[in-house]
Specification:
InterPro entries: Ion_tolerance_CutA, N-reg_PII-like_a/b, N-reg_PII/ATP_PRibTrfase_C. It holds the Pfam family CutA1. Belongs to the CutA family. This is Divalent-cation tolerance protein CutA. The chain has a single domain, classed as Alpha-Beta Plaits. Strands 1-2 form a two-stranded antiparallel sheet. It has three helices and two strands; from the N terminus they run αββαα. It is globular, with a radius of gyration of 15 Å. The protein is α+β, with helices and mostly antiparallel strands.
Length: 93
């Protein structure tokens, strides 16, 4: 699967749900699905956003993801470069 982020609907980029998306191709996932061991080659995607955008971002991704049960995880940012964090905030407002 090769995501084309620029072609995502305006509901994603227009709503400013994420300041940045990083694509990490080449991920290989092994998992059980409906009792059977599966293997897929995927693109891991990291979305940089804010807590205030979390629900809208997760809902958008779930609605537009090709998987029935996509891996959608929220990881807290405990610390980071001040300028980078300010840029994220400015990009989303």
């Amino acid at each position: 699967m090769k995501p084309r982020l620029k072609t995502w609907r305006p509901g994603f980029w227009g709503e400013k749900l994420a300041a940045c998306v990083t694509l990490l191709p080449g991920a290989s996932s092994l998992y059980y699905w409906e009792g059977k061991l599966e293997q897929e080659y995927e693109v891991q995607m990291l979305f940089k956003s804010q807590r205030s955008h979390q629900d809208a971002l997760l809902n958008y991704l779930k609605q537009h993801h090709p998987y029935q049960t996509p891996e959608l995880l929220v990881l807290p940012v405990m610390a980071g470069d001040k300028d980078y964090l300010l840029w994220i905030n400015a990009s989303l407002n």
